[in-house]
Design a protein that fits this description.
6-stranded mixed β-sheet; Transcription Regulator spoIIAA; globular; 18 helices; 3 domains; 4-stranded parallel β-sheet; single chain; Rossmann fold; 15% strand; alpha/beta
Length: 500
């Protein structure tokens, strides 16, 4: 059974994703399955055999970010496959997508994909393959975790639709360790072997997809991680630890000290300013890591409390002191602008906080500023997105202030954030416009929305709390009432009306 695992971005980006490695291993562990990889810059051929994508039974897309939806459509077109599922027949491969973004809200991909996988591949792939072995695509409708709205029965031609598809969760991460399985220098992490430490996050930040849609937080055991590290050290001298907040791993000190005892160097994907231990920082410094990356998210304490970030300014500044004490050369700080209830004073507070960090830390400081995008399945799913002109003005103001304080600045596009906002809370009407979009450009996107009579303001404004949400047909395993309470608590912290 030939399966094409497709990452809708470049090879360099895709091979940096542990999801590609994990899914490649999951498919190929079945004796009757041959899984090959495909990427945006190799389309329309599979990488291993150079066969066209139309030769495969299934195209399995793994998608991390909504903006890669455009690349998914582009790959289908380049392969000669109609983007809309309704336009395909038995001569075409089945198109299935999964990943964090479509798990939270599969509706924009529903007109394009024959099925959308909700949750962890370890749980979904075995019954998915069993269904494919039957030869009847309608069997997909019975696979737990598959959201299907376009699968036709090969005998009757009837379309099978499943609503209330439930997200599937792998509770025993030790059962299938996830680490680098294909080594290449052509990635962002080519000098290291990646190891997944944990999934989910227990912090509960109100804006965060990981902290709500990918619950519950789970960890791998120390013994399993050390066996993976030992195997990885046969290929690379550095072990990259991957997780939502690696420094929150319950045995992080034991883990990094044990890897160092094996002769390995370490790197980490993410750290929290309030969980930086001496053994962890020592291991990073001894490993030659030059940059620490932290995410305060907001400059003012009021907004950090409103988004439930759980960080104080003292903790952030203490982290800067530690970075200086351990002689790191760079500090990267991540912030959002446009959070619900944000004022110009909150934006100025970002620059002031970065300036305070700059005064304590003698290395280089870089601030990455990203417009806030409300995500389905989080407490802020009801919040309005700040209008693009306001975002642009605040980004410009902030960049000028940061540069004046000697802080390097990287700004994400407000225009593309608005596109992401439509896709993240879109429905099938948005999906049909996406399928008609001829290029990943602002102009082509606006033309496709206009042609399909889709008003982006509908998806960027505040959602009434008493109205159904497009993604209510999906069971993410989260309590809607809990999300609503968390949203109202956040609004209360902002001292603002929920329509802001």
């Amino acid at each position: 059974m030939p399966v094409a695992l497709v990452y809708p971005n470049t090879y360099h980006v895709g091979m940096s994703s542990l999801a590609v490695h994990a899914l490649y291993q999951l498919f190929n562990r079945h004796d009757d399955v041959v899984c090959e990889r495909a990427f945006l810059d190799h389309t329309p051929l599979a990488l291993e055999s150079q066969r066209p994508l139309t030769d495969f039974v299934v195209l399995a897309f793994t998608v991390s970010y909504e903006l890669d939806y455009f690349n998914l459509v582009a790959i289908l077109r380049a392969a000669g496959i109609p983007p809309l599922a309704a336009q395909r027949d038995d001569r075409h491969p089945l198109v299935i997508a999964g990943g964090p973004a479509p798990t939270a809200n599969p509706l924009p991909l529903a007109p394009i994909c024959d099925a959308v996988a909700l949750g962890d591949g370890e749980v979904i792939i075995p019954p998915l393959l069993d269904a494919l072995r039957t030869g009847d695509h309608a069997a997909l409708a019975a696979v737990p975790g598959l959201y299907t709205s376009n699968v036709k029965c090969q005998t009757s031609g009837a379309i099978h639709n499943t609503s209330n598809a439930r997200r599937q969760t792998s509770l025993d991460l030790d059962a299938l360790p996830v680490s680098t399985v294909i080594y290449t220098d052509d990635t962002g992490f080519g000098d290291m072997a990646l190891v997944e430490v944990s999934r989910g996050c227990g912090r509960g930040c109100r804006f965060c997809l990981t902290g709500h849609c990918l619950q519950p937080p789970r960890e791998r055991s120390l013994d399993v991680l050390l066996r993976q590290a030992e195997a990885g050290l046969r290929h690379r001298a550095r072990i990259g630890l991957v997780g939502a907040a690696v420094s929150d791993y319950s045995r992080i000190d034991d883990l990094v000290m044990s890897i160092r005892a094996l002769g390995g160097r370490i790197a980490v994907s993410s750290l929290r300013a309030d969980s930086l231990s001496e053994p962890l920082l020592t291991a990073l410094a001894e490993s030659g890591v030059q940059t620490l990356t932290l995410a305060p998210e907001a400059g003012s304490q009021r907004l950090r409390d409103a988004i439930r970030k759980g960080l104080t300014e003292d903790e952030i500044l203490h982290a800067a002191d530690l970075a200086q004490a351990y002689r790191f050369r760079q500090l990267k700080l991540y912030f959002m602008v446009g959070l619900p209830g944000e004022t110009d004073a909150d934006v100025t507070a970002i620059a002031a906080l970065c300036g305070a960090v700059r005064e304590r830390f003698r290395g280089g400081v870089t601030a990455t500023i990203t417009p806030f995008v409300p995500k389905a399945g989080t407490p802020f799913q009801w919040a309005a997105m700040t209008p693009v002109p306001v975002l642009q003005a605040r980004l410009k103001l902030l960049a000028r202030d940061l540069r004046r304080r000697g802080v390097r600045v990287h700004l994400e596009s407000a225009d593309w954030a608005a596109v992401q906002g439509v896709l993240s809370r879109g429905d099938e009407r948005v999906g049909r416009a996406l399928a008609a979009c001829t290029a990943p450009t602002q102009t082509a996107w606006r033309e496709a929305l206009l042609a399909h009579d889709v008003d982006p303001a509908r998806y960027l404004g505040a959602w009434p709390l008493d109205e159904p949400l497009p993604w209510d047909t999906v069971d993410l395993g989260t309590d809607r009432d809990l999300l609503r309470r968390e949203y109202l608590r956040g609004c209360s912290r902002m001292n603002t009306d929920r329509s802001v």
